[in-house]
Amino acid sequence: MTPTAERGPERGPERGPERGPERGHGQGNVQGSGTVAVTGLGVVTPAGHDEQSFWEGLCAGRSVARQLPELAGMPVDFACAVEGIDLDAVIGGRSVWRMARFVKLALIAARQAVADAGLDPASWDGGRVGVVLGVGVGGVSVLVDNALKLQADGPQAVSPVLVPMMIPNAAAGEVAIALKARGPSLAPATACASGATAIAVGRDLLASGQCDVVVAGGSEAVLTPLVVTAFARMGALSTRTGDPGGASRPFASDRDGFVIGEGAAMVVLEREADARARGRAPRALLAGAGASTDAHHPTAPAPDGRWAQVAVEAALRDAGWSTYDVEHVNAHGTSTPLNDTMEATLIDRVYPHRPSVTAPKGVVGHTLAAAGAIEAVATVLTLEHGVIPPIANVDAPAVEFDLDCVTKEPRRQWVETAVSHSFGFGGHNVALAFRRA
To answer: What are phi and psi of 75, to 5 degrees?
Structure first.
């Protein structure tokens, strides 16, 4: 049974440190549009193919990484894959043949989110609905397959739909087609921060008045020998080939790299007033968003975390919060030596009151462009359930990290406010501030 705290006026003893008099009680500063509500969630991950199974998987705190036959003989032969679901059968219809795997994952998550929000694409004003879907790599498996066909059998073997299947914006386009969403359809690519960037951009579309509803998130599916080996060759992946389930260990002293994963997550964003006017209570409020760039290195984060801190502080200003208002941090927590050191330093410096910290990548691996969106969904569920999922494979954080990491078991803790961190290759930093509705 997934731990769920009872809602009510009395909160448990683990609410965290008392807040000082500087508490902001801010509502965010969405210009002229009111507070932004999260009204729907959709998620397809290695830990679960819908919200309930995903949440149960996170709270179980066990990695789902395993060796994959398609990676046999590669330097790293394990990953976190989405298994046990027939994507084509779930999507249905005759258009699945033209969709790459990352598109299928995105479409399933988007449909879940829209249904969860109680919206019907058959009756909404599609011109007021936007889609923002972050993707990092796109249909690389389709590209590789067709390159091999070209080499073996010549030009006539290349698929006429190779280009629309492989381009990263294919997911945003197919989701828009399926949902009859005719507002802006965008595909931000900020590497591993793409999903979070998409949610921040979706919020901006509401603020600008261009949209009344935005379906936003991220998707990635690149568990191919070429891509996994490329990450391994650059030294980014854990090499615990004899222990796949124990390989992803964010903030542990013996972490040695991330475990690559795949998946998709989407949220539905609306103005809170609009949602309530149609009788829909928000699941959470997106109070603020912030972004910055390290301008330091193509892959390594700036060691001092200075510009990541700028993104976090921008999100807090946007929300009208002080740093002491933050009760929980959903960390990027990749399990790599450099990222975790930078982020631990950042958390210690920005949040001196030691809010609780979790990192879903211990369970689902690093889903790249989907990670920020998956972790945004996890953050909303934490606010709803009053439960912090544990970090998998970690008994305690490294001694040099002064973090209140939730480990071993889920922690029952009502939190009103939480920040989700996302950082990506190229120095992309994004922070999303969520408040319990």
So the answer is: -55, -35
In order, the DSSP letters of 259-296 are -BB-EEEEEEEEEHHHHHHTT---SEEEEEEEEEE--S
Tell me how far apart the alpha carbons of residues 371 and 284 are, in angstroms, rounded to a whole number: 19
Identify the active-site residue in 59, 80, 328, 332. 332
Instruction: Assess whether 366 carries a catalytic annotation.
Output: yes
DSSP state of 210: S
Calculate the alpha carbon distances from 345 to 246, 251, 303, 341, 400 in Å: 24, 11, 9, 6, 9
CA distance 53 to 338: 31
Q: Measuring CA to CA, which residue among 370, 339, 345, 396 is closest to residue 104?
A: 370
Catalytic residue among 59, 80, 192, 211: 192
User: Are 379 and 434 contacting, i.e. CB atoms less than 8 angstroms apart?
Assistant: yes
Task: Indicate which residue of 366, 385, 421, 428 is catalytic.
Answer: 366
CB crowding 410-424: b at 16 or more within 10 Å, else e: bbbbbbbbbbbbbbb
Strands 417-424 and 328-330: parallel
Q: Could you tell me the sign of the dihedral formed by the alpha carbons of 396, 398, 404, 407, in that order?
A: negative
pTM: 0.92
Question: DSSP secondary structure string, 143-169?
Answer: HHHHHHHHHHH-GGGS-TTHHHHHSTT
Q: Is 49 a catalytic residue?
A: no
Q: Tens of pLDDT along 339-393?
A: 999 999 999 999 999 999 999 999 999 999 999 999 999 999 999 999 999 999 9
- Find all residues with CB under 8 Å of 177, minimum gap 6, and list them: none
Count CB-CB contacts under 10 A for residue 298: 9
Whether 296 is catalytic is no
Contacts of 40 (CB under 8 A, 6+ apart): 112, 113, 114, 115, 116, 117, 118, 119, 266, 267, 268, 283
Under a CB-based contact definition with an 8 Å cutoff, are residues 401 and 316 in contact? no
